[in-house]
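Two proteins follow. First one:
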Amino acid sequence: MDEFLETVWLLKEENNNSYDALLKSQPKKTQVVKALDEAIAQKLVEKDGNKIEFTPNGENQAKEIIRRHRLAERLFSEVFGLKEDDYESTACSFEHILEPEVTESICTFLGHPPTCPHGKPIPKGPCCLKNHKEMKPLVVPLTELGLGEKGGIVFITPKYHSRLDRLNVLGVCPGQVLRLHQKSPSFVIKVDETEIAIDKEIAKEIYVKRL
């Protein structure tokens, strides 16, 4: 049923939520008809002539499914740097299992993104509606800190494992607090009483929470 509601939502986004378009969207038409009958029985959608329309309850359910899916896409794309081929199937799984509290935490962590990596809108949740402005992410790359600003290291996503080993030796690891002293020509941070110079590429891989 989740997949059916998601399909109807996507068709509505294209202004093509017709019965004919619904049948064409899936290879097994008998399953589509069965799902439609079940959705009507559960009062999730209504069939008005050739149009398929959500009931309020069905629209809310579909919105949450789409929201979880597109937030998962953002998480895998931005935080883990995965390509679409690598994260799409996992995002499809996440849309069915994420609890509301976890969904809100991911949204807040990402800074309440308005769109998915493909540019499609992410439906807003309660955490987004607390403030009409786009809220800043809780966790950002080191490169987004201002000069003199402090941040607690949350995680590091190095392109090469040797970088992580080097940073650990220097004391740059999750849980540590750093202060940004310089951005050019290289990034200079202070951890405890030690000043450390790192390349911008490495600075992008260090995620911090502003303090």
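Second one, unrelated to the first:
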Amino acid sequence: MALTKQRKQLLLLAALVALAAAVWYANFDRAKGAPGEVAFRADSYTPINAQDFSIIFKQRGDAQKTVYKPSGRNPFVASALPVVASATAAPKRAEKTFLDYTVRPEVIVPPQLPWKFFGYGNLPSNGGREAFLLEGEDVHIVGEGEVVLNHIRIVHIGNEKIEYEDTNTGARNSNQLEAVPGPTA
């Protein structure tokens, strides 16, 4: 006689329930204080040596109440604050040390686009203007707002010149429209 799948599962369930009941019955009548249980004795209790945290909380509260007061110095500028000379102070003799240095204003060099601007065109779909730039024999087609050479952004493409800026310094420059020599016959 073949047992169906459902009948096999019921027999397995009944066997597992019987096994669980046997384990529970074997552990139910164990004596108190058996190994593995922790007994508490009042005479062996010693309180822990806890620190008084009220002092620490007071110090933290005082630190949280501090207010930042700027000195007026810009930490991003390499020059010192201007010194206000008082009328009573005697002028000091200027001595140069090896630590003296002068801060020169940074000279911003306008960017140079090494490619020749030889033409432009309009896209019919969105009306955007694109410039044709020549690098040797390679032609690059760029639109306004695109970045070329990883740091030069095309700002404006006009009829006679292309304007661009360096994204690192913000300096601007432009190139005039140049005629490209045609093929010789």
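SUMMARY FIELD: The helical segments are 5-28, 54-64. DSSP finds two helices and seven strands in the chain.
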